[in-house]
Amino acid sequence: MRTNTTDVRSVRDARDEADALSQAHPERWDAAWRTRLAYHGNIVRLDRPVDTIPISVTGRGCALHCAHCNGVYLRHMHPLSEVMAAPDQLPAGADLLISGGCDRHGRVPVVQHLDALRQLADAHPTNWHVGFVGEEEARALAPLVDVVSLDIVGDRETAREVYGLDVGLDDYMRSLDTLRQHVSVVPHVTIGLRCGAPSGERAALDALASREIERLVYLVLIPTAGTRYANCDPPPLAEVADLFLETRLRMPRADLILGCMRPRGHYGRVLDLIALRSGLNAVVNPNHLASEEAEALGLEVAWGTRCCALD
User: Fold this and answer.
1) Which member of 26, 162, 226, 305 has the greatest number of CB atoms within 10 A?
2) E strands, 125-280, where?
3) Rounded to an integer, what distance in angstroms lies between the CA atom of residue 256 and that of residue 45?
4) 227-251 pLDDT, tens per residue?
């Protein structure tokens, strides 16, 4: 069998770059790894959420036209109206991601669709993206949801630039604290959200660590065609690695996940390697190097097929 030289080189290059990153400040990498083993053992989850069906309550509509998305990712979701036309066609073992575009206040209008969503939630595990919520909305959601995924932005200027919203970290924490009184919540933080630049990630980490969050999902900016950030670079991998290490050390008990929304290609290959080496608990839609790296690290792989927030 002929070996693809380009593939061999790309694998070698990814491993070499990950090696270089992990050789910087080796004492921190070692401390993070020892923390991971002490609190979480040698099990790592590699998830391919093939059983997850994404549903948008707004179809392709979103009032914010965010700099990093501009509605592009709504195109890959199933409009709620179409799902409800034949809800019995959903696979019996499927879990559902309930999401959609935001209104001009940064809220996903799920409450307006509770009757339909209740029918779906009665038959399937559900993960909900809801945006900003108050007490009344949290109480209404509580009987239906299995978990809520909540995006956290640690910097007001980033929220203004990306979403067009004049909101700060306190506003995100208010929604988080309100939701946590009623439902299970998994915060999501996008690294490099502001065109790849530092965008309040450490402020968000400070706030989440102080609340002893049990599970945290990290995403990484994807420069996406059709958006204002199409020509941005993703954040430097050295900065991403440093944030992973800091999070593992500051939140030793937390379940830390590298989520599905992140760049692919060479960047993604290196990213998956440093996620595993820095002691994260799970990688979603891992590249082909991840399982080999897990084995090399002495980890036992548990494969999953559901949304990572539900595992």
Assistant:
1) 162
2) 126-129, 147-151, 185-191, 215-220, 255-258
3) 10
4) 999 999 999 999 999 999 999 999 9
Query: Domain limits of the chain?
Result: 5-304
How many helices (H) and strands (E) the chain has is answered by: 11, 11
Superfamily for domain range 5-304: Aldolase class I (3.20.20.70)
Is residue 163 exposed (0-12), middle (13-18) or buried (19+ Cβ within 10 Å)?
buried
* Cα separation of the two ends of the chain: 39
CA dihedral 49, 71, 263, 232 (to 10 degrees): -170
The rounded mean pLDDT for the chain is 95
- Report how far apart, in Å, the C-alpha atoms of 304 and of each of 52, 188, 208, 219, 241 are: 11, 19, 26, 18, 24
CA–CA distance, 101 with 38 (Å, rounded to integer): 40
Asked if residues 87 and 120 have their Cβ atoms less than 8 Å apart, the reply is yes
Q: Provide the 3-class DSSP secondary structure of residue 251.
A: coil
Q: Which amino acid is at 187?
A: P
